[in-house]
Amino acid sequence: MTTFDYGPIELYAIGFDGDRPGPAILQAVDDLVASGTVNVLDLVFVTRSLDGELSILELSDTSDDAGVPALDLAGLAGEDDIAALAEGVAPGSSAAVLVVELLWAKAFAGALYDAGGAVLAREGIPAPIVNAFLSEHVG
């Protein structure tokens, strides 16, 4: 069976009020890494000032602060990716651009490749929407 060095990768832009997410968010990401669910490849914080100016902070540019996840491929999110994902950041708010490897899907990707298969489409549905729908439609 084919063994890939990396599994599928997903990019997320996660918005926050204020200039940065709280420590609970970094802890949740760290928990996912510790459980072997994901591998954090890159993490960038963007902040839009009240006058509309965008500031970008690569997590790899910070000191070795406790609670900051280790990055496997810092810089993987390119400037164009960051700019596109940051378009929706409103003045006075911020976002984390998170690039994660889906470790849970790594072996499946190898088996899919060996079988001549390919993922043709993928659509994500955010948890709040799923939960709202199910609370209205399921017993």
TrEMBL record:
InterPro entries: DUF6325 (IPR046288). It comes from the Bacteria. Pfam families: DUF6325 (PF19850). This is DUF1269 domain-containing protein.
